[in-house]
Amino acid sequence: MIKAIIFDMDGLMFDTEALNAAAWKSAGKFHGFDITEDVIRHQVGLNAAATKKHMQEHFGSGFDYDAVRGTRIEQAFQHIVENGMPLKPGLREILVYLNEKGLKTAIGTSSEEMFVSFYLKHATLEHEFDVIVCANDVKYGKPAPDIFLKALADLGVEADECLVLEDSYNGITAAHRAGIRSIMVPDLLPPTPEIEKLFFRKADSLADVIQIIESINSPSGGGL
Fold first, then answer.
1. Is 130 marked active-site?
2. CATH of 4-14+88-217, one of 3.30.70.940, 3.40.50.2300, 3.40.50.1000, 3.90.1170.30
3. Which position among 10, 146, 167, 187 bears the catalytic label?
4. Residue 219: its pLDDT value, please?
5. The Cα angle at residue 8 between residues 75 and 162, in degrees rounded to 5
6. Spatial distance between the Cα atoms of 154 and 109, rounded to a whole number of angstroms
7. Torsion from C-alpha of 17, 26, 31, 78, nearest 10 degrees
8. Is 14 helix (H, G, I), strand (E, B) or coil?
9. Which tens digit of pLDDT belongs to each residue from 115-150?
C-alpha cells in the first residue's frame, strides 16, 4: 500500500531543466565559455557542489563557477518573474488526487532551499507538501540516497509504502540506493537500459502516475 509520494523538483514538477539549460548556455557565453548540451546533461540531478566540481574539471581553473552560476540564476529567475512558473503536465492534477486520497507528499530535491521557495511561491504551491528536503538538509546529494532517506524519515513511512517520482538518472539511482520504488517521468534524458533496471515503472506524464498508484493500492493489486 502506497502511503506517500516523494517528488523530485526540477524537470519533474517544473519545466526548469530546459529553462536552466538555456540560462547556463547564455551565462556561459556572457562569461566567455561554451557550455554545451553534453556538459549540461552530465549535471542533471546533481547538487551545486557536484555541478561545480564537474564544470571546473571540464573547463579548468580559469572557470569562475560562482560568477557564471550567479548570472544563470539571475536570468532564469527573471524569466520566471516575467513569464510565470512553467509547470510540468499533470502536476496540479496529481496533487489534487493525492490530497483527495489522503496520501502524504514530499519534495526531495538536489536544489537549495532558495530555489524551492522561489519556485513554489511562483507556482502558488507553498502549502501543498508535507515534507521538503533540499540539498541544504543532507551531507550528500543524489545519486547518494540521503535526500530520499531523510524524506522517508520525515514522512514517517517505510520504503515499501512510498514511491519516488524522478526524471534524472542521478535521482533514479538515489531512489534505488534508498530502497524505494521509483517511477521515471522522462524530461531531458530518455531512460537507458541501465537505468531501466533501477526504476519500477515509466510514465509519460505526472497524470499517468495516478493510474499506477491506483493499480498498486487496489484490492486486487497485490501491493505491486
1. no
2. 3.40.50.1000
3. 10
4. 83
5. 170
6. 14
7. -80
8. strand
9. 999 999 999 999 999 999 999 999 999 999 999 999
